[in-house]
Write a structure and sequence with these properties.
Enzyme class: hydrolase
EC number: 3.-.-.-
Order of helices and strands: EHHEEHEHEHE
Structural class: alpha/beta
Strand order of the largest sheet: 3-2-1-4-5-6
Shape: globular
Keywords: Hydrolase
Largest sheet: 6 strands, parallel
Distance between the termini: 12 Å
Number of strands: 6
GO molecular function, one term: hydrolase activity
Radius of gyration: 15 Å
CATH superfamily: Isochorismatase-like
Helix content: 25-40%
Pfam families: Isochorismatase
CATH class: Alpha Beta
Strand content: 15-25%
CATH topology: Rossmann fold
Number of helices: 5
CATH architecture: 3-Layer(aba) Sandwich
Amino acid sequence: MPSRTALLVIDMQNATVALAHRAAETVAVIAGLSERARAAGVPVVTVRQRDEGMVPGTEGWRVVPELAPREGEPVVDKTTPDSFLGTDLDGLLRGLGVTEVVVTGFATEVCVDTTARQALSRGYDLVVVADGHTTSRRTPADAGRLVPADDSIAQCNTIYRTIGWPGRRIRVRAAADVELRPA
């Protein structure tokens, strides 16, 4: 049976993008992939973080304009790094007949990674968009505590190129090489 794909755009909100490494480039990559998905009839699911620093209705909580969901597109609000935990994401995807998720967004080593692993655990095949996820910019105070942002992104991509998950298909692709199959 062929895969049916959905694109997940995770936490690309004004407050997170403001502190993101290579923010403009990542937004542009995800925007291009979103347009390709829409043209192919592939659902684009926007996931938003909600917490004490990301209060619904505030400017920081809003999705950046280039990635704002279109009328009628699904939006999932979450309160943890796991886009599935305590949300209707799994039911939404299953209701759309999705068997594969294409993961993009912020932050590489937190919400993107957690959601990707949970998708695998819930039975979805996975595509990590190599140039479609990012992390926070690093400051001098981060030296020795956090790996450089480019290294964090590269590590995530390498892990998903080599990780095994029985019964699941896992791929890491540049946005230009992502195949989009309608759900």
